[in-house]
Amino acid sequence: MTPGPTLIRRCLHCQGLLKQRNIRGRHGLRRPVWSDEALGAPMFPEASSLVACAHCRAVVWGPELEKVDSYASPMRYSQFFDTENKYEKEREEIRLKEILYEEVPFFEAPTEEQLFSYINSTSLPSNKELQVRGIAWRTGNDKRRTGTCDIPFSARETDNLARLVDLLNHHLDHEPVIRAEALRELGRMDEAKSLIETCTTPSAQDEVAQFILERILEGDTYVREITHDPDRQWRLLRRVRAQHEATIALPTHDLSGPPPFAITSRDWWFKVVGMLCHNWALIETEADGSVVVYFFHDQGKTRSGLPQYSGRQLRGRAAIVDSLPFSSVRQAERALRTNGFRRLEDDPGPWEGEQPTGIFFDARATEEGVYSRGEYWTHPN
Ligand SMILES: [Zn+2]
Fold it and tell me: Which residues on neighbouring strands pair with residue 296, listed in sequence order?
């Protein structure tokens, strides 16, 4: 971050002078941390473009104010070894201007109050209205970034945000994730959820979008600091993959292959059994109320093979390689956990994508019965 020149501008309402300090490289260093600020959407400029005049309190667009003078930062020259006093003259000029404009107040960020009265007093073109409402939203949220108790939206904030959502809707390069965040804070969870889930832009498939989606699913409407969660990327991957799979048709099956075996559950459990090697399980409640856990290898492959079927006949199918009976789902879950299995939904990770897909068939008669034989299975106490 290097200090840029200081600009002297004139307020168009009161003719008073204002100082604007430019800091270069701010964009690159600023890390998104809050859910409402996370996305540097192109239509939301730096909040500093809208300023409050320190003299007349008017809200004005900083870059539109008349430029009266400017001077470079003295720090710029202190960076060089100036043995020949080469920059002495420039330094002196800067020093004089600093004295001349010493009393001139700096640009100030408008308060929430000032922003709302500005919106209500002026008729703005929609692209500017969008910017002001976006800044008003974030400025209003500043009071929620500190402190311990939740502050609900005022009626004014709710109206502003609802209007912002409408404007974003009509804006050509609208950013779906920031709109989803606005909808979330308005409590319009169904709209917010479907917006993220159906959107295929890169921003809807990054970790910020995932963070916002997870708050939506929790029913949380509050502005939140984006925390670090190393597992979030796996949950994101899982979601994006499921979204993608929903759009591809299942492979066609060769009807001469092994007869299909119906299991309705796709709530996968997995166990890491070695480097890139996992066992998979599904808990199925049968029609008679009994519970069976079915086991699979990675991608539904068999160990022993099925000599009576060709590869073509087995394409798009997954082999059930073992099973164990239980008296209840709870008992089955407990036994799976005791034996090192975890639920994929709770614990997505690099094993994602190794679970069996396609239609199931029964290969228990020719497989080794890895768990039912008892050697690799521990009964919980
Ligand atoms: Zn002014």
Answer: 280
Of 263, 267, 361, 278, nearest to 315 (Cα)? 361
Distance 10 CA to ligand 1 centre (A): 8
Which ranges in the chain belong to alpha helices (H)? 26-29, 75-78, 88-100, 112-121, 126-141, 155-170, 176-185, 189-198, 207-218, 232-245, 311-314, 329-338
Report yes or no: 299 and 357 within 8 Å, Cβ to Cβ.
yes
Q: What tokens were used for 337?
A: 């956990």
**How many whole angstroms from 106 Cα to the centroid of ligand 1?**
12
| CA 103 to centroid of ligand 1, rounded, Å | 15
Residue 332 has which token pair? Answer: 């089955």
pTM: 0.71
Distance separating alpha carbons of residues 317 and 162, to the nearest angstrom: 49
Q: State the Cα–Cα distance between residues 151 and 220, nearest whole angstrom.
A: 13
Helix axes 176-185, 189-198, angle to 10 degrees: 160
Segment 275-330, tens digit of pLDDT: 889 999 999 999 888 999 999 999 999 988 888 888 888 888 999 999 999 999 99
For residue 16, report the distance from its CA to the centre of ligand 1, in Å.
6
Of 254, 356, 366, 371, the residue nearest 305 (C-alpha): 366
